Amino acid sequence: MNTIKETNFNFPKQTAFYKGKVRDVYTIDHKFLAMVVSDRISAFDVVLPRAIPYKGQVLNQIAAKFLKATEDILPNWVINVPDPSATIGKIAQPFKVEMVIRGYLSGHAWREYAAGKRMICGESLPEGLKENDRLPEPIITPTTKAAVGHDEDISKAAILSEGIVSEKDYLQLEAYTRALFKRGTEMAAAQGLILVDTKYEFGKVDDEIYLIDEIHTPDSSRYFYQEGYEELQQRGKPQRQLSKEFVRKWLIEHGFQGKEGQQIPEMNDDLVALISERYIELYEHITGETFIRHKIEHVQDRVEKNINTALEQLL
Fold it and tell me: What is the pTM of this model?
């Protein structure tokens, strides 16, 4: 299938290009970013060999919806969304931390807890918790933003003592993180979902803090179904999830966790199609809207044309 695995566009007044794990980001006239959300998929900080049809569209459209729904909390980088798989916005100077917030003991936090740790990023956790238990209060567990390789856990105390973020800015980032998580939790609940954990990235535009990148997508967030949550917890059963955790679990079952010397298992066509359908299912559950499968023949031509049209109006 025709997926966006990588792009090689050349836009008017293009001044830089950056290829992330999932996104291709074009800097325009030193003022704007044209971000293409590719169909690449990453897990354990490794980009997997196969691209997933419609994945970029799913992520871009979920992020657009939630960024629009939170602009009363703080401004965000988006100017417009000219294509299902692309967004144009303002350039921000990013903070060198990602703000991870957790309402439940899942994923990385659970793996640390199960290994015996009771302190994560300076936040203490009580004894006796089970996987996927609700935490007494949501905790913020920041990570340093690695250009290459794994992001690393870091505490608020270390961020401030190392001067990574000023105290004034960090306190504001914490307040925004909690407000965004509250809004995301409310929007998830309206869809019969629990927002388990998520991460936010922030930057500055003209000395004002902006929300950047994506929010509340299945790549940056974990969701459970509300229905059956309590019963599954009481029985010690796995929760029904809406996240890409199912991809991580498949990789772990096939002997891959991103560690040195491990071989990425081969993803066949059936698995790729299954992951694509799961992403579409995620979109519909998270947004409450029907997913429109935009044509994926000549998808790159469509994206390039739509960005060019938007830039003509902007420049």
Answer: 0.89
